Amino acid sequence: MTRKRTIREVSWEGKRALVRVDFNVPIDDSGCVGDDTRIRATLPTIELLRTHGASLVLMSHLGRPNGEPDPRYSLRPVAQRLSQLLDAEVRFSGAVTGPNVEAAAAGLNPGNLLLLENTRFDSGETRNDHALSAALARLGDIFVNDAFGSAHRAHASTTGVAAHLPSVAGLLMEKELNYLGEALEDPKRPFIAILGGAKVSDKIAVIEQLLQKVDAILIGGGMANTFLAAAGCQMEASLVESGALDTARSLQGSGDELIQLPVDLTVADGFSATANARTVSVTEIPAGWMALDIGEATVAHFANRLAGARTVLWNGPMGVFEFLPFARGTVAIAEMLAGLTQATTIVGGGDSAAAVQQAGLAAKISHVSTGGGASLEFLEGKLLPGVAALDDAEV
Ligand code: AMP
Predict the structure, then answer these.
(1) Is residue 131 domain-shared with residue 196, that is, in the same domain?
(2) Mind listing the pLDDT tens digit for each residue in 318-348?
(3) Are residues 143 and 192 in the same domain?
(4) What is the CATH number of the domain that holds 61?
(5) pLDDT the model gives residue 91
(6) Which atom of ligand 1 is nearest to the CA of 202?
(7) 223 Cβ neighbours under 8 A, 6+ residues apart
(8) Quick one: pLDDT band at residue 35, thresholds 50, 70, 90?
(9) Catalytic member of 15, 16, 20, 38
(10) Does 349 sit in the ligand 1 pocket, CB within 6 Å?
(11) What's the domain count of the chain?
């Protein structure tokens, strides 16, 4: 992929940066920001811009309001939290566009910050409406996209606005593209991918793409059930996608031993945290029971394959990790990655990122992606619209 121009290649003194960030954070019942990981992830970009003399107009979506203002999805609490994190004033605009916002943006001095209200309060956002893109563009001199987690969507604030302004990547966006891009283009070997989660059908394109690149793919979670069923195992009451059996068979066939499946599973007599559970070989699931996690022999088998790896990419839990008794396989994978100090370890967003955070191991992973859907589409080999819209770096 062509390298994109970044904020480090712009002279910012006296410029107004219009910055798309990913402040799509949980808001708790008391109206405060719950987990502020995503806000913290953009601080390096905000700080670089401020120290180089730019003023900042920040914009983001939060949740899925219906294209109109909805107080449950207001970004106001985010302005407060950002202000605490930066120890600086963060002005808040109750509107996304309009004369008042333009006046507020024009009144910013170097280092000042203005956060706009949720871009999805305007129905033009998700339609990538031209008028909204143009109105947003009037708020800045240069567009910065630091919202990797939204880069797979062609919306007004991620893509449309880039048609009106010089457009560059923020530091978080650059980091995401570097880690994921290097894994796909020039990985240190051995390169091992670990895939889990519920469904094969969601990840067929990712598996096909990775099979061209990796030295092994270790598959766990509900996805593995479908592969095991395709290989002839009786999966009993386990989640199996009957419509994906042929695909699983042909991927396994073309995988040339690259695809490694569980050898044992923790099975339960019901889909609940309190169900009776035991660990059995994949060929010995009791009648009516279901696989909810990988077993210890599988953890050992996967550990064996991971030993000596130089690049590891992980996306998707190894079991129903929301139920504590069935989180062991997922936590074991998180611990293995944390222990691979010689490897570049990359965790795709979503559930596996949450598992790594919950286990307190995020600091020991080279890169925990902030974008679940975006990282999957990137790994499918798709050009993300929010990335494509940025200026190419000068060579
Ligand atoms: P995904 O969004 O495809 O990454 O899937 C994540 C979901 O897969 C989580 O909510 C897990 O509970 C679920 N999952 C993982 N393993 C299993 C399994 N063996 N049976 C049913 N659901 C599973």
Answers:
(1) no
(2) 999 999 999 999 999 999 999 999 999 999 8
(3) no
(4) 3.40.50.1260
(5) 98
(6) 3
(7) 195, 196, 197, 198, 199, 200, 203, 316
(8) confident
(9) 38
(10) no
(11) 2
